[in-house]
Amino acid sequence: MNVNAKHADERRLDAQFAFLLEADRLKQVIRATTLADGSRHENSGEHSWHLALYALALADQAGPGVSIDRVIRMLILHDLVEIDVGDVPIHSANGTAHGSAQVTAAEAKAADRIFGLLPTDIGADLRALWEEFEAAETPDAVFAKALDRVQPVLHNIAAGGGSWKDYNVTFDQLDARVGQKVARGAPAVWTYVRKRARGFFDQL
């Protein structure tokens, strides 16, 4: 290996490890959702890991043609932009902040910076997966989005209300903001979880 090639390899590794070290900051982003036992709020690194496990455990709930490997990759990547933007709870400000033009633009800028740390070939591939998840149009992304929406529901039920109490969420709001996306990607999962959520709210 000549000197130039060696230096190029080192620069590539420099970029790869710079990205990985930056990704560690996701563990510092505190989410609105608590752990299932309600003992503390979860961080976005924990959330991403848990969703990857959801994809493995609920693979049989995926629609035709869904690649669980690609779903897992999306879920590991999907919240990296929160390093810059932070967690934007779906129930905050009556749901208007989540998905707003301002938040979308901030997340795109964060994606430019974070995925831009990587060598171009890797960064472009991972950025494309992130964009696919955000668009939620392909079967893989629709299933991934469904899992992202359903996990906090189960945590809130287990924790006795969790962030629902913080944001004064009603069952109808949950059904409208969360249920449609879960049902689109995993209908049997939403039927199961919706019944339990309905029972929880009926007891309040």
From TrEMBL:
InterPro entries: HD_domain, YfbR/HDDC2. Keywords: Hydrolase, Metal-binding. Residues 23-190 form the HD domain. It comes from the Bacteria. This is HD domain-containing protein. The lineage of its organism: Bacteria, Pseudomonadati, Pseudomonadota, Alphaproteobacteria, Rhodobacterales.
